[in-house]
Amino acid sequence: MNKLTGKGRIMAETSKTKTRKTAAKKPAAKKSTKAAAPQSHTAEAKSRFNAALDEAKAGAAALKAEAGERADVYRNQAREKGTDLVAEAKNYGQEAKAKAGDLAVEGKARASDALSSFGKIVADAAPQIDEKVGEQYGDYARKASRSLQEASAKLESKSIDEIGDDAREFVRKSPGTALGIAAIAGFIIARLFRGSK
Question: How far apart are CA 111 and CA 107, in angstroms?
Fold first, then answer.
């Protein structure tokens, strides 16, 4: 069979060449499919990554919107709570002011009663002072008693605001005397209240 004629040999060589070429082409085709496969996987991975990234961005935007809504709700609640607290504080302030006014009126009445009582005590003691020390000192006691009675009457007739204004004016004019009077008055009132218990 090795002895083929010229035509036959050419055909045989041609068919061998075709087979070689086909065999050479087939692995090359396989290589190109293998090279195309990683590129398609990369493109698919990129598209999945981009989709995940877009989804994450959408989730972040939704969270931001929800956080903004919640912040608005909390802000409104805090504003309402603040308004309620301010209203409560005003109510407590008004109640405290009314209570302080009541206490001031009660204190004024007690002070007036205390001055009047002290004036009566001094007036009652005046005859004894006349006998033991002399009439001159008894007259001093009577004058002091009248002054205390007048002060009690003035105190009773004035309102709390007028008393406050008078006290501020007196303290402004003579602060040393005001301190002395306050100390003496405090001492006398403390003695009177201790004695009444």
Answer: 6
Name, in order, each residue with C-beta under 8 angstroms of 126's C-beta and a sequence gap of 6 or more: 138, 139, 141, 142, 145
User: What is the rounded CA–CA span in Å between residue 158 and residue 55?
Assistant: 80
State the DSSP code for 1: -
Q: Which whole-number Å values give the CA distances from 100 to 105, 108, 168, in the listed order? A: 9, 12, 18
What is the dihedral sign for C-alpha 142, 145, 150, 151? positive
As a whole number of angstroms, the distance between CA 161 and CA 155 comes to 12
Residue given tokens 């009077």 in the structure block: 181
Tens place of pLDDT per residue across the chain (197 aa)? 445 455 555 655 655 555 554 444 444 444 444 555 567 788 888 888 888 888 888 888 888 888 888 888 888 888 888 888 888 888 888 888 888 778 878 887 887 788 788 888 888 888 888 888 888 877 887 888 888 788 888 878 878 778 778 778 877 888 888 777 777 777 777 777 776 55
Place of tokens 């109510």: 91
To which residue do tokens 């003579």 refer? 174
Structure token pair of residue 127: 């005859």
Q: How far apart are CA 36 and CA 26, in angstroms?
A: 15
pTM of structure: 0.41
